[in-house]
Fold this sequence. Notes:
Shape: elongated
Region (Disordered): 76-100
Number of strands: 9
CATH superfamily of the largest domain: ABC-type transport auxiliary lipoprotein component
Largest sheet: 9 strands, mixed
Strand content: 25-35%
Order of helices and strands: HHHEEEEEHEEEEHH
Protein name: Lipoprotein
CATH topology of the largest domain: Rossmann fold
Distance between the termini: 73 Å
Amino acid sequence: xxxxxxxxxxxxxxxxxxxxxxxxxxxxxxxGNVAGSCSMGSKVSSIDVPMEYKPRSADxxxxxxxxxxxxxxxxxxxxxSRNDPRTIGTNTEDETPIPVYAxxxxxxxxxxxxxxxxxxxxxxxxxxxxxxxxxQIDSELIQFNVTEGGTYKAIVQIRLKVVDPTGKVLWxxxxxxxxxxxxxxxxxxxxxxxxxxxxxRAILKVIxxxxxxxxxxxxx
Length: 220
């Protein structure tokens, strides 16, 4: 096989080739390191991405006038109902798909943290003392997936439920959000930005529902 064929076989489908070829010139790749580069890429069997919230989306909750005063809310830990609670996506750039795993914290814990942050930003009072709360928010992670195959695409789906102190369900709803991104291959920041945008949109769709607003206010 010719050197040119080897180079492009190793780098086909990798976005880095466009920028590097233009900057360094093809001659750099025709050195003695082509075989080593192929070997290095083939050793990647999985990708670990730290679960960090880095949304780029400027979406914000729709401001709605509640029927009464906001109540103290207790946010229970998110339940992950997916088949594999560790996996957050797949890289499909190579012939064999590579799983993408959560690192640092579980996706469920991550969703709980982001829910608390976004609900607080929206003006809701979230407390950690369940004994003093007037409403409990139960959350379920239904879908959390980022696919990288030339570009990054994510979809996140969550279910929220508002429960009063007697256990009565006052409201429940499902929110879905998507995200897309483009950049360096197998890059943690690109994964984080993509799934963060999707999660933020999913949360905002749910908490912007007027029925949700009513359920977490004293008018319910």
